[in-house]
Amino acid sequence: MSRDIKRGWEPPYITPHRHDNNKFGRRASRDNCCQRIDGIDVDYLMERYGSPLFIASERRLRENVRRVRTAFERHYQPVVHGWSYKTNYTSAVCSILAQEGSWAEVVSAFEYEKARALGVPGERIIFNGPCKKRPILERAIAERARLHVDHLDELELIERIARERGEVVPVTLRLNFNTGYTDPWSRFGFNLESGQAHSAATRIKRSPNLHLTGLHSHIGTFILETRAFAEQVRLMCGFMKAVEADGGCLIDTIDIGGGLPSRNALQGIYLPPEQAVPAVEEFAAAICAALEEGLTDRDLPRPTLIIESGRAVVDDAISLATTVVGTKRLPDGRPAAVLDAGINAMLTALWYHHPVKLTKPKEGDREDTVLYGPMCMNIDVMRHSVQLPPLNAGDTLVFNPVGAYNNTQWLQFIEYRPAIVLVHADGDHSVIREAEVLADMNRHDRLPPHLQSLTP
Ligand SMILES: Cc1ncc(COP(=O)(O)O)c(C=O)c1O
What we know:
By secondary structure, the chain is an alpha/beta fold. It contains 14 helices and 20 strands. The chain folds into two domains: 36-55 and 317-436, Lyase, Ornithine Decarboxylase, Chain A, domain 1; 128-309, Alanine racemase (TIM Barrel), CATH 3.20.20. The strands form three sheets. Strands 3, 13, 14, 15, 16, 17, 18, 19 and 20 form a nine-stranded mixed β-sheet that branches. Strands 4-5-6-7-8-10-11-12 form an eight-stranded parallel beta barrel, surrounded by six helices. A two-stranded antiparallel sheet has the order 1-2. Helix 7 (152-165) links the parallel strand 7 and strand 8 (169-176). It starts with a helix and ends in a 14-residue tail after the last helix.
């Protein structure tokens, strides 16, 4: 009997074949380097401020938000950009966007308080989200924030507060529906197809303390299909006309949420971002055309169009610079490098193949290389496979775009969270968020007296 038979049957296992070739044979990595950001040497910034390091470009951030707003204003006015705080609520980022005229779109008590602490007036705060408790709602109502209602319990709570204050509070209804192009985000807001949204509008109409003034929906994120937004606007306009025809309300804002893609490389999309991602101008043209069409035969003042673009505004404005701390060959022969930044800092590595470049040109044949982060966890992979020349400890790399959802979703897990530096529009630079130190982590820990010494 052979040894194999003695060992018995073993279940087969499947190893995913991860690579950056797409079906057209393209390699995701490019030959060029990222030596400078807005004219400032990246290695110099890392020597001065430490590694890893997030590097934000004020110039790019301002350009991006202006481009988004202009793209829409070319076809429709008035337009307001609401800055989605959850995308990146670093104070300097929020302040730059407030200076650019963006309102704040917040989804929690923390984000609301943050916007107010930065000086954003209540009337310029869009208060979204499914969990608004009474104390923060009371404050938001007193400060005339724009309330986007998520569910019936919230509507009733707002009504109670309004009644107690003897006021009529304007509210916006968040709608959800199926555009046929994206998976509906049906857990937020009131459903259109089931009649729930109509019932909520009737409920508001009958209340002496509520007034329906706006409609909102957010159909998803990183949407590549312009027709999805056009259909969203068509459905919203249909609903607007229906509730206005019912009497008792005039819709003055149509808020289409976020969802525009950034020029990032989403996993599972094979075309390079520059081919896969339509320009913001194409989205704006489709959305505004649908809005104009939706407003025909409506002899009332034009509603303000609110867009809450997050990732399209901030993603490519921020990079993550990181250092190779060691290299190795994996048993299957692939080269691998351990970086000092991992998914603790860049959680979006779970969804994107982030483009990554060396800060300096390097000789040597390129190979499919695995880039690991520093955490002692198997999931900590920054790139499963990227073509790079042979790496050595001390080499420095830059990931970009990383500005969306990393400086908010990053984890305090195993490692300290790194600093963020801003390259100012005038070429100067400064830290806009300090790297964490032990005291930051220990600040909230409390030791009962019997644990204050390590001898019992
Ligand atoms: C209500 C709302 N507005 C805006 C955004 C920002 O989306 P994006 O980054 O896709 O533009 C989100 C993100 O989930 C959201 O839920």
